[in-house]
Design a protein that fits this description.
285 residues; alpha+beta; N-terminal domain of MutM-like DNA repair proteins; four-stranded antiparallel sheet; 6 helices; class I DNA-(apurinic or apyrimidinic site) endonuclease activity; FPG_N; Znf_FPG/IleRS; DNA-binding; hydrolase
Length: 285
């Protein structure tokens, strides 16, 4: 599933071709994805200027001047492609939704597994939307500080990695970037969140910000389905230090002339990658 850096990359690609423009036509090619497409999707957003494009967690939000907002979630395999009409293909496989702008841009929502979703709601009712109502803090917001992270973790009696993946606490972090941040902070993924010290929280906060910023600059990670809006892949997968590298030498241990390999365990059905030497579990020491 695309995580915060991938969704942010797509959002930034969308802004130049959508801000201030409007949709002249919307083709709805099937009745639903994970949920039914909202009533009025093909008509309500038409011919009204787009005044804002935002990201909340892993959701893309498009605000229209007439007080409506469109929410897009890419799910597991969703992609958004932007094509000038003159170069646009007739259609792509699994192309379920197509937006046509008033200046001949074509934005196609392609989703092979159909786990994505689209919602349409009054902008002033955003806080009541079930997808958005219970989301936690944005990790790139100024309110997300090391002190905030420390205070949050002190209330959580669950493994650290599980806590960081909980979108009710911190949004946008997924499996890739949590594994990478924990490695850079030297924290074991199974350590109880409540056990973090203030120094641990400072290191973890720094690692989260650093990893997200670097991933956005690299255009996200392409492992399977994710691509930019022009179809090109992201590049951050080439900079992963632990994710997907089970059995490979730990880069920190190799630099220190030690022989340690990256290990993989399963937590809540998801693979966790870490170095057992660099990320010792102090609770079990």
């Amino acid at each position: 599933m695309p995580e915060l850096p991938e969704v942010e990359t797509i959002l930034q690609n969308m802004k130049p071709c959508l801000m201030g423009r409007s949709f002249g036509k919307i083709d709805v090619n099937r009745p639903n994805l994970r949920t039914p497409f909202p009533a009025g999707l093909a008509t309500i957003p038409l011919h009204h200027p787009i005044i804002a494009l935002r990201r909340r967690a892993k959701y893309i939000l498009i605000d229209f001047q007439h007080g409506w907002s469109l929410l897009i979630h890419l799910g597991m395999s969703g992609r958004l492609f932007i094509d000038p009409t003159i170069f646009a293909p007739a259609s792509r496989k699994h192309e379920h939704l197509v937006f046509w702008t008033n200046d001949d841009q074509r934005i196609a929502f392609v989703d092979a597994r159909r786990f994505g979703m689209v919602a349409l709601f009054r902008t002033d009712e955003e806080s009541q939307q079930p997808q958005l109502a219970h989301l936690g803090i944005e990790p790139l917001s100024p309110h997300f500080t090391a002190d905030y992270l420390y205070g949050l973790c002190r209330t959580i009696r669950m493994p650290l990695k599980t806590a960081l993946l909980d979108q009710r606490k911190i949004v946008g972090l997924g499996n890739i970037y949590v594994c990478e941040a924990l490695f850079r902070a030297g924290l074991h993924p199974q350590r109880e969140a409540k056990s973090l010290t203030q120094q641990d929280a400072v290191r973890l906060h720094h690692a989260i910000i650093e990893i997200l910023d670097a991933a956005i600059k690299a255009g996200g990670s392409t492992l399977r389905d994710y691509v930019h809006t022009d179809g090109t892949p992201g590049a951050f997968q080439n900079l992963h230090l632990v994710y997907g590298r089970e059995g490979e030498p730990c880069p920190s241990c190799t630099q220190a002339a030690r022989q340690r390999l990256i290990e993989r365990i399963t937590q809540n059905g998801r693979s966790t990658f870490f170095c057992p030497h660099c990320q010792k579990n102090k609770e079990n020491a």
